[in-house]
Structure formats: C-alpha cells, structure tokens
Write a structure and sequence with these properties.
The protein contains 13 helices and four strands. It has 367 residues and is an alpha+beta fold. It folds into two domains: 74 residues, no CATH class; 207 residues, no CATH class.
Length: 367
C-alpha cells in the first residue's frame, strides 16, 4: 500500500467539503436513507460486503453512500473499518447443506430431488428498461409455493454415488484454517487460503479470468452442478458451554462447478470440482470464483499450466481490488522529486545521444 502524503491543508479541507457537497447533490431531491439502499440496491450492498469481507448490510450501505456509488471505494471503506474491529473467535463451519434455500438451480439435471427453485433472478428477463419503475408503480405480489420437506441433496452427491466425481477431500477437524486477514500470503497457497482470497477478490477481474477459461485458455469444460442462494446458521463454540451458541443467519451464494477430467496416472476419467461461496446474492461472482478455483487446481490434478487463470500467484496477487486501487491511484499523488530526477536523466541521455550523433557525422564528413 502507499503512504499518504501531506499537501496544502486548506486545499485538502476544501476538497473534502466539496466532495460532501457533491455527494449530497441537489438539495431539492430527498437524501438517500440507508434502509432504501439496503432494500432496493441489495445486490450492490452484497458485493460490498463480499469484497469488503464484512457482513453488515447497514455499514455496506453507508459505505456506498459515502463513496457516491463507487463500489471499489466502498469496499475500501469497509475493509478499513473491518481492521478496527476486535476478534472474538471463529464460528463453526457453516453447513450449506442445511441452507434455508430461496433459489436453487442446476444445469446438469432437470429433475432434482427437492426440485429447482428459480427465485429472484435476471436470467429470464428481456433486458428492456421498465419505465414504470421511474413512475413509481408498485410491482405485483409474487406467488409463493408451500414449503416442502423433501431433501435437497447436492448434485455432486448424486454423481459421487456413481463414483463419477472426485471425492470432496477429507480435512481433519482439528486442522487450523487459514486466515488471510491476519497472515500474509505465502505461495503456494493451501486451497482454504486460496478460496478466501478468491471470495473477496474483485468480481470483474475474476469474471474475466473465468471467461478466459471457457475460451480455451485453460481447457476447461464446465457445467453448473448447482447454485444455491439462501440463509445459513452461524454458531460459535464457547469453551464454558457444552454446545455451540447460535449467532444468527447470513445469506450466501454457493456454486459447485462440475468439470470434465480425462484422468491421469493417479486418477481415472471422472468429473472434478470447482467451488465458490460468497456473501449475499452474488451468483456471477460465485460462478467466476468456482471456475477460477478449478483452473488453479491444475498442478494438483497433473495438468499443464498454460494460461493466466491457472497461475496462482498471478491470479491471487492481482485479484484484490483494494490493493490494486492503492497501487494504481497512488500515481495521481505528488511525484515531483521522482519526476524531476527522471527528467534530468532523460535530458542528460538525450544530450549524450546528440553528442554521439554529432561526433559520428563529423567523422563521416572527414572521411
């Protein structure tokens, strides 16, 4: 990260006042309330929470307001606030199989135990602007269906029953889980640390990499095994109590990608897995994350690393939009001394090049 520089204090104070004035906008227009942003710009709030690594809808809405809608700046604000919070411990691993599902789709099986739930989605809209939204017309109430007690087994479990997909991996319960918010990244990463980095990585960057894997830059042939959106319970184990304490629920999006695998010397032909889990309703991010996760497993699966999406250090080191913002935007801060040094160097090099050219012309004329 860059170190802030000191400039003209009066100018900086006035710039802050001007920013606040522009943020408020026309005083005849009612000011935005945080609850309006939470309820009506929910997907933007979810993205800020996911990339800011902090699940708090009101704080995310405040950050969006303060940043005038600049999502990366809002993520930056949330990350900065997050560093001030005390750490009380780690919750138990959330069991997404027990998710209270509001959307569940699969592109691999039409008829699933438990059924497919379209839920709130843009997938089947016509992408036409709706003038009635500007007119303030209230939408019709959506129909609901009765809650079913039918189990919703994972698609990957169905494939696993036929031994057609790799195992999900056995991790010891007492194995410490990585925490990239406290420990610096050291390559190569374990998969838990890598998934954490992807979960809070920039959606646009991961989306571009995921797209590249589908265009032949990682020889990936994926299917959406399943996408689930819903609420999961969080519990905290307290040493003084013999049972975990419920803390509440959070909404998450989970994506399990199923990829073709021709096999290797150690494994038969089978399907392999890519995984994505993100705060809120963030399908595109979860899908991009799962595609990148699968691509980054190339070495583990004995595949050649031939594309950017398969290069762990490249992907993880450049996926964090807060770090990327710091390095790019610091270029607009004063670099007067550095530039003057460069300017002096270029002038001297230019003079030396012209002197050599003059000497060469002189010798050619003499001959």
């Amino acid at each position: 990260m860059y170190v802030a520089v000191k400039g003209g204090e009066a100018a900086i104070r006035n710039a802050h006042k001007l920013l606040a004035d522009r943020r408020r906008g026309d005083r005849s227009v009612p000011a935005l309330r945080l609850d309006q942003i939470v309820e009506q710009l929910a997907l933007g709030v979810d993205r800020v929470m996911a990339e800011g690594s902090l699940y708090d809808t009101e704080l995310a809405a405040l950050a969006i307001t303060q940043a005038r809608g600049d999502m990366i700046e809002a993520v930056f604000l949330v990350r900065a606030f997050r560093t001030t919070l005390p750490r009380f411990g780690y919750t138990c691993a959330a069991d997404t199989a027990e998710m209270l599902v509001e959307r569940r789709i699969s592109a691999t099986y039409k008829d699933l135990p438990g059924g497919q739930l379209l839920g709130p989605t843009f997938d089947y809209t016509h992408r036409l602007l709706e003038p009635e939204l500007a007119a303030g017309i209230e939408p019709e109430n959506a129909e609901t269906r009765e809650t079913s007690d039918e189990a919703m087994p994972r698609v990957t479990d169905i494939l696993a029953n036929e031994d057609l997909i790799e195992s999900d991996g056995d991790v010891a319960q007492d194995k410490p889980v990585a925490d990239i918010s406290r420990e610096p990244l050291e390559f190569p990463l374990q998969r838990d640390a890598r998934l954490q980095a992807l979960a809070r990585g920039d959606e646009g960057f991961l989306l571009a990499l995921a797209y590249s894997t589908q265009r032949g830059y990682a020889r990936s042939h994926p299917f959406v095994g399943e996408i689930r959106i819903g609420e999961v319970d969080l519990e905290l184990e307290v040493p003084e109590l013999p049972f975990p304490v419920p803390l509440g629920r959070i909404r998450v999006t989970e994506c399990q990608m199923v990829n073709q695998f021709k096999g290797s010397a150690k494994a038969p032909p089978q399907f392999t897995r890519g995984y994505g889990l993100v705060f809120g309703q963030s399908e595109r991010k979860a899908m991009a994350m799962s595609l990148c996760d699968r691509a980054l497993r190339a070495t583990e699966l004995g595949e050649d690393v031939v594309a950017a999406a398969q290069d762990e250090e490249f992907v993880i080191s450049h996926s964090d939009n807060v770090q990327a913002t710091g390095f790019v935007e610091h270029l607009k801060l004063p670099h007067y001394v550095d530039f003057q040094a460069e300017l002096d160097l270029v002038r001297r090099m230019r003079a030396e090049a012209e002197a050599r050219a003059n000497d060469s012309e002189h010798w050619e004329a003499a001959e």
